[in-house]
């Protein structure tokens, strides 16, 4: 199998990691999210985040990422339906000296995760440590600001000490009408020396889709009592004295064994549970709103200048050619621009296109083909013309020197390289490489 690849070698053209996407069968692009109202809403959200998390430093870079819920991580149709057209909205600050900070909310506006890292976060020379109870109080005061009715919705489940007792990890279980929600927890890590929360967030065996369940999604019906359920379990699956080989394989011991099943609380029917680790067990007003920095304002303002998703999708079909289907579209950003990351599929072959979200110029293209026989007979001059025409139509040639084109041919196809020049000087190892295959149909940058 040959991978056909478009390299956008210029730093001005490069994009960051592709964010998670939505599976084709569940992907249904919503109408466009780019508007003045959205811009205002994002400004208010960033102000809220900076206030709650006391972000006062002026980071050199600020990015927003709208990440669609990845249905590959959602194993049930029910959760897929609940998470349809939903996303995780991530607000990211970074700075060479200050470090990195990321806050994520669901598209419904609910807190999802927080993390902060700096070079010197482990250099705290303060040897005095606060107690576990003091740390827990700091954490729960913060969570009360992030999660409405936190004290009613979550209960401390477990805790552990890390880093020679300098860091405390707290684990909370979610309660729905007083009942623990299996396979769903909230974790928080806090330094006992700096009193700073390092990271916290939601964990679920079913991925972020679980965060879109509200209390009303859970039934109150439970005709079966705890005692009746235990009786059914004992009758259907009595404990058997058995031998068990240890995990190390070095010993054998006797155990009382039973398979694990769920019992429906309404009708007493047995339901096989394949996730053996699921069972739960018991155990002041913020400061004034912090104004946005120039970097944050610019990034949010740029939202209103973006092209629509439908336009990006149309452009992707135009570039990829016949037979490809768009399976997902996501929006992310780097220090300079916003980008549409588009995944495609054709038969058993896959492709990926990145477009500048402001002008739909092609940033990168990555296609696969299962061709097994190569016999390139395209003339170099023809390949050069095709490549330049392709660049003229879909790319950005503003910093490319079209007089310094180099060509390299092989049985697989012809590679046309155009270097980047700034102020009439070449920028080493930067530019655009366009690959023309033997059919003169596929162009790989």
Automatic annotation (TrEMBL):
InterPro entries: YcdB/YcdC_rep_domain (IPR032599). Residues 1-20 form the signal peptide. The keyword Signal applies. It comes from the Bacteria. Keywords: Signal. Residues 44-197, 311-440 form the YcdB/YcdC repeated domain. This is YcdB/YcdC repeated domain-containing protein.
